[in-house]
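Researcher: Next entry in the queue.
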Amino acid sequence: MSSNLVETLIGAIVIAVAGVFLAFAYSNVGPSTGGSYQLTAQFNRVDGLPTGADVRISGIKVGSVTGQSLDPVTFRASVHLTIANGIELPEDSSAKVASEGLLGGSYVAIEPGGSDAMLADGGEIKYTQGAVDLMGLISKAVFGSADGTAPAGTGP
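Model: Structure for this entry, 156 residues:
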């Protein structure tokens, strides 16, 4: 009988710790609760950038990717971003699709500009740099460049 009581208490403690963990995780996910505003950015490539990916400034999450679409006129990827209200971005800010390492996920890194005018809700980040094709770079390094010349340091 005492064995069942001990098992029940341990189970209750595990459930309580899991509840505290979930409450902590829920309160710390996403941008601040003070609201957010929408921006768009157009990229040549967004390989591996999922909806829900982080938007970061100086490595700190300030928003997320809320959607992607293909512009039928320019054939560029239009990425829709949500940025926390407390973060004001100058109009000349730039965005790039960055990777968390060789096997890591992708995110949007924003470099704030120096303009006095700020981007408003619904604005567009004009200066962008798309994702780097890592497999293409690796194959060039291993097999040589596309123009038939050997990679640097491999010739006679």
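Model: The CA atoms of residues 41 and 125 lie 5 Å apart.
Researcher: Noted, moving on.
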